[in-house]
Design goal:
- It contains two helices and eleven strands; from the N terminus they run αββββαβββββββ.
- It starts with a helix and ends with a strand.
- The chain is α+β, with helices and mostly antiparallel strands.
- It has one domain (about 5-215).
Amino acid sequence: MNSRHLLLSTSRWLLSVGPLLLAVGLQQPAQGSDVYFSNFRRIEPQYIAALGDNGATSGNGAQSWGIWRQDPGPRGCNLDRYPQVKANGGVTPSKWKFDAADWWLEEHGLIMEKPTFPLPPGRYLVTGDRETTSVLTIHPKDKAGNQRWELMGGATLYDVTHLACRSARYTPATANNACSPANVRTTGFPVNPGAAMPVVNGCRKQDYVVLIVIGLPTAP
């Protein structure tokens, strides 16, 4: 995740819409729905790692979504520092613990700490830092353990995806612990917006899209 770009671009977005929202009493509708921004309090940006059909407005599988409560970019670790991290027992310069069985990479080649799983049920005001802001609802698990998600006002997952932010999860493909950041080619960064993250020898890869959370409900 490009922390500096994401933080700055999100800040610009908030600054650009802030006066407008205040001027109308925070009554701008979320993507044309009857749910208004006044139902939400603005927060420091948080980031959802999501999976799903880009063109979908709702779906299943939200139990596989996670959230970073703070921007993971500034806490990321350059690939060329991985040997020092390994020698330090997996402790990164930002003091989070690297997990060799489940690690994350962002579009500039920074190793990121894992998001928190699962994303709790509730409502989130989300944006992709483009034209669309919408209300994301994460439903509680059903009896089978599935969680549904839905976006209001006809917004699609693509509409609220931050395209410039790329993130992928890497887990071992075999039992010989061959999945390592040491196997990541250092060329090809930054990854283009919307493009897939690199394949890494010895690893299974899962690309996630990232949604920016800018507000939470003012009341349950």
